[in-house]
């Protein structure tokens, strides 16, 4: 970090060199051989800073938030509170900011998109057939120990009579996992 006196000497060298950065760099190096020699571009930037701000000090480079105002953040949080199953893109469209801003706002509030677990609806009349199937299965396993290797069980069905269910789009925004479930109709 250069002192104000050193910066003033650099500015004087820039003026003496007719506002030429490379010439100012050579002149400054001749006059002050024991000092750090800045790049030739620094002399022009120093002159511009002095002309614009009236000071050698750098202006604080604080970026003014245009999209993420406190009002916008409050709107985003209210929208998610009213409908925790919403998407960041839906919130972004209704509030008028980018979905990345919505993500940042929610993350700063320690909110996460927790996935909803699919479960099959169980009716009282389902109990007897399920017990019968389990007994049949255990009977088959008793007579043929390799029977489980011949059966393919899967819970990866991606469509039902109710339509396609995409688990990637079904989530709930919350600070803690609500362990939400979504009951779906029984399979036939």
TrEMBL record:
Entry's localization field: Nucleus
Superkingdom of source: Eukaryota
DUF4817 domain span: 6-56
GO cellular component: nucleus
InterPro entries in the cross-refs: DUF4817 (IPR032135), Homeodomain-like_sf (IPR009057)
Protein name: DUF4817 domain-containing protein
Pfam families assigned to the protein according to its UniProt record, in alphabetical order: DUF4817
SUPFAM superfamilies xrefs: Homeodomain-like
């Amino acid at each position: 970090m250069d002192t104000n006196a050193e910066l003033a000497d650099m500015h004087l060298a820039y003026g003496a060199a007719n506002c030429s950065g490379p010439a100012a760099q050579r002149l400054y190096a001749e006059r002050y051989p024991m000092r750090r020699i800045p790049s030739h571009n620094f002399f022009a930037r120093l002159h511009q800073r002095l002309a614009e701000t009236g000071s050698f000090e750098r202006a604080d480079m604080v970026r003014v938030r245009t999209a993420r105002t406190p009002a916008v953040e409050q709107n985003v949080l209210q929208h998610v509170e009213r409908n925790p199953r919403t998407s960041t893109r839906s919130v972004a469209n209704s509030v008028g900011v980018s979905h990345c801003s919505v993500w940042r706002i929610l993350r700063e509030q320690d909110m996460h998109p927790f996935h909803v677990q699919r479960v099959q609806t169980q009716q009282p009349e389902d109990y007897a057939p399920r017990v019968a199937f389990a007994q049949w299965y255990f009977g088959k396993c008793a007579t043929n120990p390799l029977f489980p290797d011949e059966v393919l069980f899967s819970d990866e069905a991606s469509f039902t009579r109710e339509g396609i269910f995409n688990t990637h789009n079904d989530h709930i925004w919350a600070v803690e996992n609500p362990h939400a479930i979504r009951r779906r109709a029984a399979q036939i």
